[in-house]
Amino acid sequence: MSAKDRLIYLPLGGAGEIGMNCYVYGYGPAGKERLIVVDLGVTFPDMDTTPGVDLIMADTTWLQENAGRIDAIFITHAHEDHIGALGLLWHLLKAPVYARAFTGAIAKLKMEEKGQPLDAIRVVKPRPETIEAGPFRVQFVPVSHSIPESSALVIDTPAGRIVHSGDFKLDGTPIVGEPFDPEEWHAIAREGNGVKVLACDSTNVFSPHPGRSEVTLAGPLSELIAAQQGMVVATTFASNVARLKTLAEAGRAAGRSVCMLGRAMKKMITAAVETGVLTDFPAIIQPEEAVEVPRGNLMLIVTGSQGERRAASAALSRGKYLGLEMKEGDTFLFSSKTIPGNERGVIRIMNAYSEIGVDVIDDRGGLYHVSGHANRPDLEAVHDLLNPKILLPMHGEHRHLREHCNIAISKGIAAELATNGSVVDLTGNEPEVVEYIEAGRTYLDGTVLIGAMDGVVRDRIRMALNGHVLVTLILDEEDQPLGEAWVETMGLPERTGNGAALIELLEVDLDEYLGNAADKVLRDDGKIEEAMKRIVRQVAMEAVGKKPEVTVVTSRLVAD
Amino acid sequence: MSAKDRLIYLPLGGAGEIGMNCYVYGYGPAGKERLIVVDLGVTFPDMDTTPGVDLIMADTTWLQENAGRIDAIFITHAHEDHIGALGLLWHLLKAPVYARAFTGAIAKLKMEEKGQPLDAIRVVKPRPETIEAGPFRVQFVPVSHSIPESSALVIDTPAGRIVHSGDFKLDGTPIVGEPFDPEEWHAIAREGNGVKVLACDSTNVFSPHPGRSEVTLAGPLSELIAAQQGMVVATTFASNVARLKTLAEAGRAAGRSVCMLGRAMKKMITAAVETGVLTDFPAIIQPEEAVEVPRGNLMLIVTGSQGERRAASAALSRGKYLGLEMKEGDTFLFSSKTIPGNERGVIRIMNAYSEIGVDVIDDRGGLYHVSGHANRPDLEAVHDLLNPKILLPMHGEHRHLREHCNIAISKGIAAELATNGSVVDLTGNEPEVVEYIEAGRTYLDGTVLIGAMDGVVRDRIRMALNGHVLVTLILDEEDQPLGEAWVETMGLPERTGNGAALIELLEVDLDEYLGNAADKVLRDDGKIEEAMKRIVRQVAMEAVGKKPEVTVVTSRLVAD
Predict the structure, then answer these.
(1) Domains in chain A, ordered, with CATH?
(2) What pLDDT is attached to residue A560?
(3) Which of A250, A383, A480, B34 is most exposed, with the fewest beta carbons within 10 Å of its own?
(4) Which residues of chain B lie closer than 8 angstroms to A464, CB-CB?
């Protein structure tokens, strides 16, 4: 380690939100560090802030500018908020991508979808296998989570050892995937100089009780399913392969044939089977077989636990789907939690089922779902186990990161609340924010990547709130209005409270303005358009109480 | 009671949602019943389904068509979902409005705001005072809720007694307002032939434990506030006068000066004091005095418990508000629950406070808020107390109404899940749905009332999701294009993934089309516009992956 070298941490996504994880570590002379990237995830749009957007991911402008310094990309696990942007962003970074077998299989699907080279994906085994990436030596450490083969990373650098937790919980009996192994973590903490930095999942820092194991669900789910008379339909996160197995086994134990609906689920099961993660999944039947099974002997496992309009759960709430239909006396089970912000969608489905006469069971009692993230006491246990000098809370909103920092500081661990864009120098004994870089968001909008600040989405929100008025005006060769201004509206009431036609009110005032406009105004497109916009907004405000967006198109006839 | 007379119930809002309550009862010959209306409430818009809308209320078309048959409007209490549409809709119905003093005071404010006559409001006393309205004799019965003077209605008709519960809980110690009085309810059940119909609040039917009293909060709130070092800011629903009092008293007991921020709160306190409901509210100071008070001796009570962007809670999270500012070490308390759908807004404020270093305390522990609605065991207690022949569950989503019906049926009470628009005949011993009327929603959009199905909001949602393309084309006196088509876009990416300009791609294809278009197409505005729309959508889909909304304006020059 040269005196001028430094070790840095730079979150680009995930530090200040739960979603779009993307973390950078660097080592080397300041501004010339060699870099590794951990995770390239997405987050999901909503109508409030990102109408019409398809996916949201970290802004990689800084990484692109420094692409030549990137030695590797590591993907900790195959959840969308960690892997979802890989196919969309890889061509901008072009570094080798390391992942374990199951994650690698999903990574290849992501790359294939976007026409990216599959050989960029390097499948690796867990520790002790070690990836050399510039000055970094990286090992994957199995952790338990709600998807198979989730991993923490042990990142050795000349300035010390970093443990990047990824998403994890402490589960000794996770059904599918590796159990939490305290021995392994003890070893990681004891080797060499121990752990300098722990970058740690903060999702459940506000959950006060120790987390529960996946295995605790088997009993309650089996009892519940066995007790039902009609068809049982259960939903959970598509990637929760352990839960899918528990649900399917509970169904089979209750003498039911099990059928799975939803592409995302099938993709995950296939990848899990092909990579050897899943070896003894119960037999399942196809929808065309399921339609022949008496409903009391049938169980469906379906996508759409968050109320997604296009998923199987929503399709079934609207009527027949692949020949299958829910009826009065059937049961629908959410073996999942509702992610904040998705409440309306989930409630919409619950009410749609209520209208059919289907009993809906959700996780209010805590019997049918456990979280995949470490709760507060579990986080404290990991702090104690790894005994890091520095804690970097990640994978959380600001309030989660702050709480996690406070826990660490109360135990004498140095902690830094570094949000997206903070460059943190980790070389010394105390973390220090040395720089802030622009760290915004990139949207996949249709098939195009746009910046969150490009104004495209802002304009869509404005049209949604205010409506849109179009004014067209033709001016003749002498710059005089040819006929009258023509107005069209979209997303505005046709008539005022008094019954007057809004378009007519607008046209009358525009024509009055044009009739009196000075010649020099009429010769100036900018001035006419500005004046007409002002008039439209003013008249609309008086007439219907809204200030619409306005587009004015002025056409001029030119003398031949 | 003539053999041809019938008693009917017709919910127009509130039966199938929590919000925009509006219930109609009728008595008389079929189709000629005299009518009373109970409540005229609003519900609130969201970006997902109602962008740009200001308020949502029941569609009163049917009531307007039958306005001559309406003998009275009764308002049970002054929550927005029961009274919010009064000023907006009264001029369409024009019947006398009966309410108790506090509710009447708020009703007058609503009428005044919209220029409606204040003398339409008739302030009445609770039972035994009786309002004669056509064939109905109506009494207000005090119930406990989260606003002063909430009332149930006892509605006597020639066909029997109806109890319309309004919003209520069973609280013997509600701090402000009348306690639950089982003796009174016993009397109501015993008089005459007892209760034929109970139309009953269903909000908390899924809450399994008996509800807690408002008085249980005083201890925990006092302890919490006394324990804080910095400024304490608490928020709750503006109309929860009892909570405001408890909070203010806890602040005063901790030696703090108390200041209230937010117009809605002041309006409620003023009405409560002026109508004698509130007699001993602690002294409060004004913001200009509060700025002089050391922060450890200050408590603010503010509006915005649902994360509303314009409320005091949000303003304080963004910086200085009325000279007051939150700082590191201060505490912000949500003495409220987050209504489903408002999670994002509340979490946004929590994170904004976290960034300032303010500790946020919410009601996760159940210590600092109690609900204003009867829980499942409380509902069952009321069923037992009133012993109705028929239960009509109201004030709930479909799933709440269904659950409430199931409870009643399991006890041998006839129940009907009647959603908005169902006309229920209550004349016999079993309720019977005899008709469905159109029962939609009306939007206040700016200053205009529009129908939910008018297409205005649909167009706004489409523009928000897909963007908007404008095409203008001028055709000369011979119906030939004069120059080229001109394209403008709003809410669409400027460039494709390959860097091509979207507008240019659109113009090239449109011009190619126009160059080849047959004369008979060029003479037909409809045909040209249809073709150009198709081209724009197709080209945009290929270029940027979105199918935008398209407006085409064709102008034709006419020979002089």
Answers:
(1) 5-209+371-451 (3.60.15.10), 215-361 (3.40.50.10710), 467-556 (3.10.20.580)
(2) 61
(3) A480
(4) 47, 51-52, 460-461, 463-464
